[in-house]
Write a structure and sequence with these properties.
mainly beta; Immunoglobulin-like; Maltoporin, Chain A; 28-stranded antiparallel beta sheet; six-stranded mixed beta sheet; globular
């Protein structure tokens, strides 16, 4: 501990750089001009870097820490706009003071002035890739999940409710910097209901800095929602209607009122989705409890109806020139019903046949409430402190009932009536999660440097009950003792971090940081009164970022980070969920956390970017692997630790502007992957190459029309020992901006070629449990028919001028480590 404290003290004594652009605005008579819009723009493409407004004295200041060439654009209703010449910010020349600028009044009064910086769809930074959602035409009418599906390096596993980033699992998902500390199944539900119209940008952080939680070995996905910054009363309305195998609808309203000192904002979105999927399985296996060697054919169809409500309400208030207070409430609820008839044929050699017919009818209801408050105070010039507190409440209830028959070739019942073979079964599952978070962040400018430091504490209490019951002699009884689960989980995590950004020369900059986290997780089975998990972990997570500006158009970047992926609570819990008479879903209380080391080299030339990432994972977690039960009488589908995994990943982003009406963007992520596992009957090691690609073509057409054609493809890969075949999609959209500010209409089509078909294979790499070799073939809804959506959007009110608000990264980074699969 003494070494850690000395190390942290050493970091506090170091200094760091912080670029600054400042000045004042005045009228020709010398009067200050308040609430003027000040934009810092990238010189290469005029994309918006940062924005603020002048205070009551006409003064403004923008702090920004990345060297480069920029321009400043200033506007105010009733005055002529002003743009600066290009200027350079470096570690040696970090301050640009424009002095007092005099803005001339317009000769005629305008009803509104709109200053817009056009952003490219993708932007590469030293620690992340930024997707500017508004810059993509197809984002209208889409969900957050659909936008992520089209994002570079992101792969979505719809069957298992998971993400990969750069080909790796262990991804945490955040909204406004807060971890989604809810079951992953509900994360998918939330992102599928979250309208892309409410999203400003998505950040893909493969090497997050130390101010973020260390959780997420593959990195983080941060979804930044739009926030009202326009002065006056304003809002927007969006309505989407669509159809595939069933109806789709979304309606959302955003309202805000901003006086410059006080900013109220709120939104409400309702969505409805009737969807469809089917699955086919062919399998060969040796199961003694079913008679030995057998072949299995499975067909399964799922029809699902889901309704979602999402609402937010918040306020930011500038108490005085140095103090800002604020808070917000976010409420999400979902109700889904599903019906899944299934037909299984078990051909037991040499001539026996068992037939299973089942129908699973389930309901999923969940509610999620998050409240946040913050206070930010500027202590003196270049020094500020910020306090944040969060509270999260989540409750989920997911009962289901199974009606089935298990017959032999003569039509007589097979099996017994007091196990998993009962003709009627039902499952119950409910979870309640409460999370409290407190955080303090401190920033101080020391000459040419700025120091960042912070403390954070998180406490989580979760109760979870689940089980399977069978109807035996007209009484509901537990199917088996191990199918019942009643878990109380308590976890505390404390963290401290420091970070500095130190100039080495006028063109070279070093960012160094470290985060120390200590956690204790305890899980008790309240039914058996036994402790299942009691684990503590204290670890230091250093980070380093080195950048060098080669010239005005190019730079090099080198970084190192250490990360961790803790097992989710449901991954650890020994629950059992029904799959079919021969298989159940369960957790693994012996799971170990994943420790990851990342080294990344990047090169940017103008708007082109290239990066090479080398990572080493110890104990990576692979979900939905198959093992045998201790009694070898049932198949377990559960998460398992691999021994290790190595990745060498190349990522490129190549935007082109063909002419004034045609732009395109290509992104390729791929490389060499290697892993070793030892949980199967025969341990295995594999080396392979995998890649993913995205592209978009954007067209500006006459008469206020625009169009976009985009696509993505993920090559074959492994999830543990499970091989997943490659698949992709082609999407298109056309948009019409209506005259006289009457809004816009957009028609989009998802999966034009009906190619989102998922093929997975078990037993191709090594001998699996019960010597299984099978092929799972899934048709998603769009594989049957493309999804069509028509969206109308209109904005109203406001002056068009913007004011600075609370930073979007909130207090937490909580809310993702619970899964319910």
């Amino acid at each position: 501990m003494k070494r850690i404290l000395l190390y942290l003290l050493f970091l506090f004594l170091l200094q760091n750089t912080f670029a600054q652009v400042s000045g004042k605005l005045a009228t020709p008579s010398g009067q200050p001009i308040p609430i003027a819009n000040v934009l810092l723009l990238d010189s290469a493409d005029s994309s918006l870097i940062k924005a603020t407004v002048t205070d009551d004295n006409g003064a403004y200041r923008i702090d920004y820490g990345i060297p480069g060439t920029y321009l400043l654009r200033i506007s105010r209703l009733g005055y002529q706009a002003w743009s600066s010449p290009l200027f350079r910010l470096t570690a040696a020349q970090r301050i640009k003071d424009f002095g007092t600028l005099v803005l001339e009044e317009n000769s005629r009064q305008l009803s509104a002035v709109v200053v817009r910086g056009e952003k490219p769809v993708f932007q590469q930074q030293i620690d992340r890739t930024v997707i500017n959602v508004e810059s993509s035409l197809l984002s209208k009418g889409s969900s957050a999940l659909e936008v992520l599906e089209r994002s570079p390096g992101v792969s979505i596993d719809y069957r298992n409710n998971g993400f990969t980033l750069g080909g790796k699992t262990g991804v945490t998902v955040m909204i406004n910097g807060n971890l989604l500390h809810i079951p992953m199944e509900q994360v998918f539900t939330l992102l599928s209901s979250l309208s892309a119209d409410d999203i400003e940008k998505i950040e893909l952080l493969t090497t997050p800095p130390s101010r973020y939680d260390a959780d997420g070995s593959a990195g983080m996905i941060n979804i930044v929602l739009k926030k009202n910054r326009k002065l006056g009363t304003n809002g927007s309305l969006s309505v989407t209607a669509g159809y595939g195998m069933g109806e789709k609808a979304t309606a959302g309203l955003r309202l805000g009122h901003n006086t410059g000192k006080t900013n109220w904002y709120g939104s409400y979105t309702f969505s409805r989705d009737r969807t469809y999927s089917d699955m086919y399985i062919t399998s060969a296996q040796n199961m003694p409890f079913l008679g030995g060697q057998l072949y299995v054919l499975v067909s399964d169809t799922t029809r699902r109806l889901q309704n979602n409500h999402d609402a937010t309400l918040g306020i930011d208030h500038q108490l005085n020139p140095t103090t800002t207070l604020g808070g917000n409430l976010s409420y999400n609820s979902s109700h889904a019903s599903s019906s899944s008839p299934s037909h299984n044929e078990y051909n037991i050699l040499p001539d026996s046949l068992l037939i299973f017919n089942g129908a699973i009818n389930g309901i999923s209801r969940w509610n999620n409430l998050v409240s946040s408050v913050y206070a930010e105070k500027a202590l003196r010039k270049g020094e500020k402190i910020r306090f944040d507190m969060d509270y999260l409440y989540f409750h989920n209830d997911g009962p289901s009932e199974v009606q089935n028959s298990f017959l032999n070739k003569d039509g007589s019942p097979a099996g017994t009536n007091d196990t998993l073979y009962a003709p009627r079964q039902r499952t119950y599952a409910n979870t309640t999660i409460q999370v409290g978070v407190g955080k303090v962040d401190y920033t101080k400018q020391l000459g040419k440097s700025t120091l960042e430091a912070g403390l954070k504490g998180t406490y989580t209490r979760s109760t979870s009950r689940s089980g399977i019951e069978s109807l035996v002699d007209d009484n509901w009884v537990e199917t088996r003792a191990e199918t019942a689960n009643n878990i109380l989980m308590k976890e505390g995590i404390g963290a401290v971090y420091v970070s500095l950004n130190a100039p080495i020369s006028s063109s070279t900059n070093l960012v160094i940081g470290s985060r120390y986290e200590y956690s204790r997780t305890r899980m008790d089975n309240q039914q058996t009164e036994k402790n299942t998990v009691d684990r503590t972990l204290g670890a230091l997570f250093p980070s380093l970022f080195l950048s060098r500006q080669l010239n005005d158009h190019s730079n090099l970047q080198l970084s190192y980070t250490k990360r961790i992926s803790r097992p989710s609570y449901n991954d650890l819990a020994s629950y059992v969920g029904y799959s079919d008479p021969s298989a159940v879903y369960t957790g693994n209380p012996f799971l170990q956390p994943t420790i990851t080391h990342n080294v990344k080299l990047g090169y940017n030339y103008r708007s082109y970017s290239f990066s090479l990432l080398l990572s080493r994972d110890l104990n990576p977690i692979a979900r939905y692997q198959i093992t045998e039960s201790p009694l070898k009488d049932v198949l377990y589908v559960s998460p398992q630790n691999l021994s290790w995994q190595n990745n060498l990943t190349l990522q490129t982003n190549l935007p082109w502007k063909v002419n004034n009406w045609w732009t395109m963007n290509y992104n390729l992520t791929g490389g060499w992957r290697q892993f070793k596992e030892d949980y199967t009957l025969q341990p295995a090691e594999a080396t392979y190459f995998a890649w993913s690609a995205t592209f978009s073509q954007n067209f500006s057409l006459p008469r206020n029309y625009s169009a976009e054609l985009s696509g993505w493809y993920n090559s074959w890969s492994y999830n543990g020992t499970v091989k997943v075949a490659g698949f992709g999609a082609l999407n298109a959209g056309i948009k019409k901006e209506l005259n006289n500010n009457r809004g816009s209409l957009q028609l989009s089509v998802t999966d034009l070629l009906r190619t989102i078909r998922i093929n997975t294979y078990y037993g191709t790499l090594t001998e699996e449990a019960f010597s299984i070799r099978n092929h799972v073939y899934i048709n998603t809804e769009s594989a049957k028919i493309p999804l069509f959506k028509l969206t109308y959007t209109r904005s109203f009110g406001g002056s068009g001028l913007k004011t600075a608000g609370r930073p979007d990264n909130g207090p937490g980074e909580e809310r993702e480590r619970i899964r319910k699969d």
